Amino acid sequence: MKKFRKVLDGLTTSSPVNPGGSPACGSAAGTPSTAPTPRELEIQETLMSEHFQICKTVRHGVPYQPTALAFDPVQKILATGSRSGGVRLLGRPGVDCHCQHESGAAVLQLQFLINEVPNTHTSHVLHMCRVCVITFCHLPFQSKWLYVGTERGNTHIVNIESFILSGYVIMWNKAIELSTKTHPGPVVHLSDSPKDEGKLLIGFESGTIVMWDLRAKRTDFRIHYDEAIHSVSWHHEGRQFMCSHSDGSLSMWNLRNTAKPFQVTFPHGKTQRDGRKESCKPILKVEYKTSRNR
């Protein structure tokens, strides 16, 4: 580095430049001119800090802090959402799309419209989003009606062709017992029964589960559990379902007897001296799958 500086010093002193830009010459014949000072030889830098900015050139892998996942089995597209409001779509080679919420709100859930293209008239849905926070959505297979649960505990129904809210609203105070004054919390689960599409299973964060009859507009049964609910999944026969809870437990319920769960397990808990299972971290997602050997 020192040798390089000496070379530069030699170049600058061997060919001085006058302010006019031409090599320095004598001001008169036989009269040498004085060499310029080092400050006169400094190059004026025109690039400023505001001329530079950071920009993305490559995006690789799953988005940072993923919060939601969905898969389209027809087009073979995987969608991932992040806590910062980003959504990335990945498919076959060359299929890579990314979009971002302007507000940066976290993506809580993703739902594909299988072989459907919705219209752009979304004013009614946007109006609902401004009024309340959406916490869960469910679209039955080959259905035109999207069930939308909110932070207030109510369930709305949206037509996916027009994206207009229907007048049908399941209010939380009608779904739970009228004598219960305590709010059940946000809606954390919505699903139609595999046996009857006219029955909607609604799960509230507090641990309350309701089977709502869409035609009769009333509740078939209510379940109250001591632990908060994070996820619910049906057995494919539609006779029982499973819930995951905040204490790391899984409760299994049979529609024939909803007074209490017929089985409660702690998959990651150790057995204590008194025979009980210790509490664990919450199970945020559960899927009820069966195989040939059950």
Automatic annotation (TrEMBL):
Record Pfam families: WD40
Write the record's keywords in alphabetical order, separated by commas.
Exocytosis, WD repeat
Show the stretches that span the lipid bilayer.
none
Could you tell me which residues belong to the region Disordered? 1-37
InterPro entries noted in UniProt: WD40/YVTN_repeat-like_dom_sf, WD40_repeat_dom_sf, WD40_rpt
Taxonomically, the superkingdom here is: Eukaryota
Recorded GO MF terms:
GTPase activator activity; myosin II binding; syntaxin binding
Its Gene Ontology cellular component terms are:
plasma membrane; SNARE complex
WD repeat ranges?
Answer: 222-257
Bias class Low complexity marks the residues at 19-33
Q: Which GO terms describe its biological process?
A: exocytosis; Golgi to plasma membrane transport
Entries under PANTHER family matching the protein? LETHAL 2 GIANT LARVAE PROTEIN (PTHR10241), SYNTAXIN-BINDING PROTEIN 5-LIKE (PTHR10241:SF19)
Q: Which family does it belong to?
A: Belongs to the WD repeat L(2)GL family.
Official protein name in the record: Syntaxin-binding protein 5-like
